[in-house]
């Protein structure tokens, strides 16, 4: 389950029209969400609040053997007005990352759209997000500085300060440039002076020119698979049904003289696709001979299936992982009993989702790999609390099958 | 002095190698491995070669049945080799990221995907040269410390020898790892291992085996070493801290494996509770069976102990005492009874030793029973300084073998006190003792009855104990004498004075001992409230019952030792003529 701060941060991306999916780093986000979910350990409480549209706080108290906790604060210069901050109102799809439905590409805003003039002077600012988190007993400090430099670029600087790290901490600067058709990223980490470049190119026709901001506002909420499915039915005109993307990344550590390289391909269906949505990726690490292919499918609005196959051409090691994500709806309130009446009157039954986005009771994620390691995660909502409990089970472990178990509880207002 | 290793039977034993390989495998996998190693490290092959290490004794600080301290010099240039198998992560980005916080990780998509490669490493041509400090005691286990970096050179050959970069990297990494392993890990592993062997559950089973092993391993070195030639004068532990005499005395407490079985963990706890309650004026006194509880030594006594501890030599083994006194009295020597030492409540960790003392006392009593009073006679030592006129000093010693029961028992009681005999150079240290002397010396006149009142055990003595002690009659007779005439004791006891010891010796505290024994054993008086007098005098007071028993036990041991190894002891006496060089480290 995403933390509240990640939730707010994603809301900031949405509000500032930043497409997180159009990046090489998120090429296989769907399969990672379904297969690489992390299970909580121990007991952990989060209490969070979006006290104003610009400011959020979150406190965490956890216990894995010993008690630890963290304090975090977030400031966004962009008011996050429409954000559902109450844990009773948060759409579970936004905090339980699952199948990432790609949206149609959208031409970036024109720079002049962002200009605000007042009495002959430009008064607009670059939108900025500041975030800090202090882990208490360990005295580790995390800080994030996020700034939309222009409609096409975003700068992200993240720092960790910890006395146990070499040099007392690290800084990662991440400059992203998204031109819809292609996106590039430049990365620099002070840790061993790692330099990195990533790029992604989307094949297919250029995206249609977008309308000015004030017209594009209705769909400025967080995109989800369900919304996408709803939109898919709504859109009818001829659009590409899928998108093919190719990308690559290269890293080089100046100090330790080591590097890494990988290339990747992705084909994903777009909302206009009439069948069930699916995503296929293939990544290759030519240096290490690692080949990884994933296939994820949104079999129904409530079910995602994903599989991944890794193969190393040098060591002939292979690995297979399968995972699933299964959603459960809340019991319908009695109002839906009127459906039979509508049927009689010849009306179409409205999809429940279309008028109630927040009707999910919970989500079960499970993954299994060939070595018999099973991960289970159940996330949902009870009253006003979001909970997430997970377990790691080793099916071949014999007596000590349970490798980890944890419960995480979130409350936000 | 050097050891002559019998290397071949060790290496010829097939089961030794398999066991050593298992031990090494577990040891290597116990500590967290660097992220580059992704699999367990398996010891594939181990060969100690045919060349034994060259071990040289530089110093023996302390030597007894149950403890040992020494410094060795070890050189090894043998043909031993070790082959390890493991799997390593070949992707540098993968290992790089695994050690970094995820918050600032660039989160590469596939560039960090792993490639694990099986790796075989052979370590050979190991050259070691080190100074080793080895401290062994039965309570505290075995401590082994390298004083310097033991690894001189090492040859690392691996699967990747063809790639010079990898070879150099591995060579560097493994040398560094091995250095830290030898300097930090090995001492810890050895210490823990030795401690685990003495955990009560394992103790009884392991003790005999270990004692045997220990004897085996030291047989070569022990013979030529004269333990008495070098009583440590400045006992220090491996880190250079000066050991308290009581601390060392407590270590020498248990000389046989059978002793350990005598007291259980539960009793140790009770005894520590007892001392605690005493310190805090608590009225609660935990009940301990078969034990007579005495007030611990008062503050003056404690001060004495600590004051003299830096200077006084902690007693070396039990058996060493007779020699030291028979020999030249110039040997600096502390005869501190174990019970005495354990009695110190100011020493936090030592509460267990208190119990040890008591347990030992009881045990020895039981053990001593068959031997009767006869065996107890070899009470040793007493180098006491008469403080009557300040200048008049003499040493009083009990005859070890020939003395009559009464004679021997009396000195033994004194021996219970911390007795410091100063060297001939006349360097007299009479630290905190002086103030209390007047009080002690006044006592003799009516001291006996007084002590009877004050010191009777609060808990009535158990019958079996008093019965089992054959001594009471022997003790009681001489006591009044010595007590009443303590002022002129020097004159009264010519027989106790060794002819060749005119040196400055002084005994710290005197006479109270005997009374206790007699009182407690002969007529248990009930419930005499401790008077202020008791408080003051109990400063020098020993827990008598177990002291006497201990003394008996010790004496018995000395006797046995003597009987078994008389030649050895004789030689020791000769060696005693020349005081050994002082030790410091």
TrEMBL record, chain A:
Record keywords: Membrane, Mitochondrion, Mitochondrion outer membrane, Transmembrane, Transmembrane beta strand
According to UniProt, the name of this protein is Mitochondrial distribution and morphology protein 10
How is it placed in the membrane, per its record?
Multi-pass membrane protein
Could you confirm whether the keyword Ribonucleoprotein appears in this record?
no
Give the similarity note.
Answer: Belongs to the MDM10 family.
**Subunit relationships:** Component of the ER-mitochondria encounter structure (ERMES) or MDM complex, composed of MMM1, MDM10, MDM12 and MDM34. Associates with the mitochondrial outer membrane sorting assembly machinery SAM(core) complex.
Subcellular localization is given as: Mitochondrion outer membrane
InterPro entries this protein is in? Mdm10 (IPR027539)
One Gene Ontology cellular component annotation held by this UniProt entry: SAM complex
A Pfam family this chain is assigned to: MDM10
- Functional summary from the UniProt entry: Component of the ERMES/MDM complex, which serves as a molecular tether to connect the endoplasmic reticulum and mitochondria. Components of this complex are involved in the control of mitochondrial shape and protein biogenesis and may function in phospholipid exchange. MDM10 is involved in the late assembly steps of the general translocase of the mitochondrial outer membrane (TOM complex). Functions in the TOM40-specific route of the assembly of outer membrane beta-barrel proteins, including the association of TOM40 with the receptor TOM22 and small TOM proteins.
The text the record gives for the protein's domains is:
Lacks alpha-helical transmembrane segments, suggesting that it resides in the membrane via beta-sheet conformations similar to those predicted for other outer membrane proteins and porin.
One GO biological process term: mitochondrion-endoplasmic reticulum membrane tethering
Automatic annotation (TrEMBL), chain B:
Which molecular function terms from Gene Ontology are attached? lipid binding
Q: What is known of its domains?
A: Lacks alpha-helical transmembrane segments, suggesting that it resides in the membrane via beta-sheet conformations similar to those predicted for other outer membrane proteins and porin.
Output this protein's name.
Mitochondrial distribution and morphology protein 34
Per the record, where are the segments of Basic and acidic residues compositional bias? Answer: 434-445, 554-563
Q: How does it assemble?
A: Component of the ER-mitochondria encounter structure (ERMES) or MDM complex, composed of MMM1, MDM10, MDM12 and MDM34.
Q: Which domain of life is it from?
A: Eukaryota
Q: How does it sit in the membrane?
A: Multi-pass membrane protein
State the Pfam families in the record: Mdm34_N
Q: What sequence ranges are listed for the domain SMP-LTD?
A: 1-208
Note the HAMAP family from the entry: Mdm34
Could you list this entry's UniProt keywords, alphabetically sorted: Lipid transport, Lipid-binding, Membrane, Mitochondrion, Mitochondrion outer membrane, Transmembrane, Transmembrane beta strand, Transport
Protein's organism:
Imshaugia aleurites
């Amino acid at each position: 389950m995403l933390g509240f701060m990640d939730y707010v941060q994603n809301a900031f991306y949405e509000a500032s029209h930043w497409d997180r999916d159009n990046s090489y780093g998120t090429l296989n986000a769907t399969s990672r969400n379904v297969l690489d979910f992390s299970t909580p350990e121990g007991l952990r409480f989060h209490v969070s609040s979006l006290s104003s549209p610009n400011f959020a706080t979150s406190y965490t108290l956890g216990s894995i053997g010993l008690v630890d906790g963290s304090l975090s604060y977030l400031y966004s210069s962009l008011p996050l007005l429409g954000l559902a901050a109450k844990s009773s109102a948060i759409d579970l799809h936004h905090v339980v990352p699952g199948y990432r439905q790609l949206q149609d590409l959208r031409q970036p805003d024109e720079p002049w759209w962002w200009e605000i003039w007042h009495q002959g002077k430009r008064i607009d600012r670059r939108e900025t997000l500041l975030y800090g988190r202090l882990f208490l007993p360990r005295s580790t400090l995390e800080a994030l500085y996020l700034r939309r430099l222009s409609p096409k670029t975003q700068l992200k600087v993240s720092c960790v300060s910890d006395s146990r790290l070499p040099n007392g901490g690290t800084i990662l600067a991440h400059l992203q440039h998204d031109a819809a058709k292609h996106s590039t990223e430049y990365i620099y980490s002070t840790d061993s002076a790692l330099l990195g470049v990533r790029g992604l190119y989307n094949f297919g026709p250029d995206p249609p020119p977008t309308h000015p901001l004030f017209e594009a506002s209705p769909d400025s909420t967080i995109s989800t698979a369900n919304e996408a499915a709803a939109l898919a039915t709504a859109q009818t005109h001829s659009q590409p049904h899928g998108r093919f993307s190719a990308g690559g990344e290269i890293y080089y550590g100046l100090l330790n003289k080591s590097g890494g390289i990988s290339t990747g391909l992705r084909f994903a269906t777009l909302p206009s696709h009439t069948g069930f949505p699916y995503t296929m990726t293939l990544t290759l690490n030519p240096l290490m001979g690692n080949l990884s292919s994933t296939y994820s499918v949104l079999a129904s609005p409530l079910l995602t299936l994903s599989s991944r196959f890794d193969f190393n051409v040098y060591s002939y090691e292979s690995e297979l992982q399968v995972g699933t994500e299964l959603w459960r709806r809340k019991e319908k309130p009695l109002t839906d009993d009127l459906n039979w009446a509508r049927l009689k009157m010849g009306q179409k039954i409205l999809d429940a989702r279309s008028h109630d986005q927040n009707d999910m009771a919970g989500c079960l994620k499970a993954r299994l790999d060939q070595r018999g390691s099973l991960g289970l995660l159940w996330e949902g909502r009870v009253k006003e609390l979001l909970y997430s409990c997970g377990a790691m089970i080793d099916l071949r472990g014999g007596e000590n099958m349970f490798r980890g178990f944890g419960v995480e509880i979130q409350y936000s207002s | 002095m050097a050891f002559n290793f019998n290397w071949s039977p060790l290496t010829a034993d097939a089961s030794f190698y398999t066991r050593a390989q298992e031990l090494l495998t577990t040891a290597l996998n116990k500590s967290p491995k660097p992220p580059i190693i992704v699999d367990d490290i398996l010891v594939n092959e181990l060969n100690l070669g045919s060349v034994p290490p060259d071990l040289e004794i530089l110093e023996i600080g302390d030597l007894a049945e149950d403890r040992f301290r020494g410094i060795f010099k070890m050189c090894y240039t043998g043909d031993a080799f070790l082959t390890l198998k493991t799997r390593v992560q070949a992707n540098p980005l993968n290992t790089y990221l695994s050690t970094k916080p995820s918050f600032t990780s660039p989160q590469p998509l596939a560039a960090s995907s792993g490639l694990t490669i099986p790796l075989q490493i052979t370590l050979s041509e190991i050259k070691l040269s080190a100074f080793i400090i080895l401290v062994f005691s039965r309570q505290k286990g075995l401590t082994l410390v390298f004083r310097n970096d033991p690894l001189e050179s090492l040859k690392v050959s691996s699967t990747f020898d063809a790639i010079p970069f990898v070879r150099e990297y591995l060579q560097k990494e493994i040398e560094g790892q091995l250095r830290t392993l030898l300097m930090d890990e090995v001492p810890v592993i050895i210490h823990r291992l030795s401690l685990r062997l003495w955990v009560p559950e394992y103790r009884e089973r392991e003790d005999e085996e270990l004692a045997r092993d220990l004897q085996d391993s030291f047989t070569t070195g022990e013979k030529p070493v004269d333990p008495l030639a070098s009583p440590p004068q400045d006992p220090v532990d491996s880190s250079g801290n000066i050991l308290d005499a009581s601390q060392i005395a407590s270590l020498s407490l248990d000389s046989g494996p059978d002793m350990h079985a005598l007291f259980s963990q539960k009793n140790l706890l009770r005894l520590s509770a007892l001392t605690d309650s005493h310190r805090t004026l608590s009225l609660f006194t935990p009940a301990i069976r078969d034990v007579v509880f005495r007030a611990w030594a008062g503050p003056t006594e404690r001060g004495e102990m600590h004051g003299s501890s830096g200077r006084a030599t902690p007693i070396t083994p039990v058996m060493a005492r007779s020699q030291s006194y028979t020999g030249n009295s110039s040997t600096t020597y502390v005869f501190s009874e174990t019970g005495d030492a354990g009695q110190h409540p100011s020493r936090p960790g030592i509460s267990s030793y208190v119990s040890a003392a008591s347990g030992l006392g009881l045990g020895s009593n039981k053990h001593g029973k068959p031997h009767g009073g006869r065996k107890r006679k070899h009470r040793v030592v007493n180098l006491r300084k008469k403080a009557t006129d300040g200048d008049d000093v003499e040493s009083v010693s009990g005859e070890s073998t020939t003395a009559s029961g009464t004679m021997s028992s009396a000195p033994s009681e004194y021996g219970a006190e911390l007795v410091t005999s100063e060297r001939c150079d006349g360097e007299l240290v009479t630290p905190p003792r002086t103030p209390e002397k007047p009080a002690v010396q006044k006592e003799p006149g009516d001291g006996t009855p007084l002590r009877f009142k004050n010191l009777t055990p609060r808990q009535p003595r158990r019958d079996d104990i008093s019965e089992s002690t054959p001594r009471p009659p022997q003790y009681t007779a001489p006591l009044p004498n010595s007590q009443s005439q303590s002022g002129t004791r020097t004159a009264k006891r010519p027989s106790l004075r060794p002819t060749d010891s005119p040196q400055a010796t002084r005994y710290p505290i005197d006479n109270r001992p005997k009374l206790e024994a007699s009182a407690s054993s002969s007529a248990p008086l009930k419930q005499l409230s401790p008077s202020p007098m008791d408080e003051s005098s109990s400063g020098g007071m020993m827990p008598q019952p177990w002291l006497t028993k201990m003394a008996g036990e010790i004496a018995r041991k000395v006797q046995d030792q003597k009987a078994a190894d008389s030649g050895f002891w004789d030689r020791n006496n000769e060696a005693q003529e020349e005081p050994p060089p002082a030790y410091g480290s």
